[in-house]
Design brief:
Number of helices: 1
CATH superfamily: Cupredoxins -  blue copper proteins
Strand content: 35-45%
Radius of gyration: 14 Å
Oligomer: single chain
Largest sheet: 5 strands, mixed
Shape: globular
Length: 121
């Protein structure tokens, strides 16, 4: 029963993530950046962005589902498990400095230290 409820919650979160991501499909991103999640680590671990420049992250997992949220933004989604597809998120840094990515997002088993910094200048 717990497994069924977990799967239903995962599917709902994935569906909501896809719906919100689809809203921003009009503009072509300046860059597309592939990010891989595995065992609470994201690769690459540091990404340099330009303030005001639209980028698209293409996120995949090498194992289980992972949370994906950027502190200080409304981005809060789930990367599907390996073999279940990818998550595409569009992001525009609205300020200079660091945007910290939290891979736990309440979804993964452990609360981990943020591992990706999006440096914006």
């Amino acid at each position: 029963m717990v497994v069924l409820v977990t799967k239903i919650c995962f599917c709902l979160i994935l569906l909501i993530s896809v719906c919100f991501a689809a809203e921003d499909k009009k503009e072509t991103p300046a860059r597309t950046i592939a990010i891989t999640a595995e065992r609470f680590i994201f690769t690459p671990s540091r990404i340099k962005l330009k303030q005001g420049e639209l980028v698209e992250f293409v996120l995949t997992s090498e194992d289980t589902g992972h949370g994906f949220s950027i502190a200080g933004t409304s981005i809060n989604a789930v990367i599907p498990p390996s073999g279940m597809g990818e998550l595409r998120i569009r992001f525009v840094p609205n300020r200079t400095g660091q945007f910290v990515l939290d891979p736990a997002n309440g979804f993964d088993r452990f609360k981990s230290i943020p591992t990706v910094f999006f440096n914006s200048s």
